[in-house]
Amino acid sequence: MLDRYGLVGIFAVMALIFPVIPLLMAWVVRPKKPNKTKSTTYECGLAFEDFPEQAQNVWVQFRVQYYIFALLFVVFDIEVVFLYPWAVAYDSLGLFALVEMVAFLGILILALAYAWRKGLLEWV
Amino acid sequence: MDIFNNLFPGLYDWINALLHDWFKGAMPADVESVLVSAIMALIVAISAILFMVLMVLIMIWLERKNAARIQDRVGPNRVGPYGLLQPIADTIKMLIKEDIVPTNADKLVHLLAPLVAMAPAVLALAVVPFGKGMTPVDLNIGLLFMIAVGSIGVVGIFMAGYGSNNKYSLLGGMRGVAQVVSYEVPQVLTVVTVILLSGSMSLVKIVDAQGGWFGLQWNILALPVGLIAFVIFYICALAEVNRSPFDLIEGESEIVAGFFTEYSGMKWGLFYLAEYFNFFIVCMFGATLFLGGWQGPILPGWLWLIIKTYALVWLGMWIRMTLPRFRVDQLMKFAWKVLVPVALANLLLTSILIGVYNGIGF
Lengths: 124, 362
What we know:
Number of strands of chain A: 0
Helix content of chain A: 55-70%
Number of helices of chain A: 6
Oligomer: heterodimer
Helix content of chain B: 55-70%
Distance between the termini of chain B: 45 Å
Strand content of chain B: under 5%
Shape of chain B: globular
Structural class of chain A: mainly alpha
Radius of gyration of chain A: 26 Å
Number of domains of chain A: 2
Largest sheet of chain B: none
Order of helices and strands of chain B: HHHHHHHHHHHHHH
Structural class of chain B: mainly alpha
Order of helices and strands of chain A: HHHHHH
Number of helices of chain B: 14
């Protein structure tokens, strides 16, 4: 018998193969007639080449706002990872587990309240 | 009804025995058992994928028909009876469309993005309990696997946004990451409620725990916490798969078509397919976690799961056709200022209620 994760591995291989099949089929049957205008970057109502050099470069700095939400996400997600084993074993742990987790979640809620108060959750 | 319940497990056992007979004596016993289980896993994976493709084709038809009915139109009715073959016609159209890649694009990332978006949707099928004894792989951390795999898809969206080298795509990709990341937090928090109610992370055990009352003791009926958790889970599910009213990453009135502005042909088709795959799977997980999975009276288990999943899918279509799109600031505010606090409060309430109910250590 294969290990359970071996079976998951077979699923993963199938998951990688499955989307390639329609792409290959399309590659066989589709027309291939590229021309210069067709393969320019899309732009609303204007020709992309007419843009100044500066505006043609789209890989620019992005807003710091996204970064803050990413940091908040990391904090909360890691906290939740600690919650999972606790939830599985909750029935056998008793009052101690409840008190511990209330304190743990209390710190989490405090952090959320702090971020809220500081205005980090505002999208400006 | 037993015959329908045992249909697919029986088929599995039959093929399994057939393969064992076939390979017996040709190789050492341990090699043979590994080989047979690998072939069986391959068969299961392929049939799960085919099942999903069928479901998604029906779902696309249903969505178009539903949208039409809600908007007082007839909808597709030319291709096949009731327009049932419309999704197949759509697929053929996508296959014969030219694939246009912009000269400026990062070609490799542009090509890989739809694959990365699609693959986790298929991988998530590995842990779904489709029916009694019909789980492809019964992982003891199935729930964690489902969440972990489900959040890979956003990498594909960001790759599409980045690889297209188009500012609309990049804006769409960034919005996608911000949105999925924000709605993941309340979702994983509500899932802890389900673990508390069932006492396990294995999806099979979670479904088994909902089997009481003739298969109607669903987690959603563990009032009030189950219902609150389900509503939060469903809202987050819609946001995670970028369905309207959370489809800001496409937002055609603002950013053209979001992350797939520069996609055409089958690559675009894969994103489309991945969206429906993900939506169907997330509804299936919603049904498994909160609506009792395959548990239910009279009808066979796998049929119950399909019915429940389609009920959730239909609810999503209704919401899509009814509500307008959120603004970005409203979206983020809703996630962090409403859903996260409510999910945390719900989690505390659940643990206290279970503590009181069980009388543990009190």
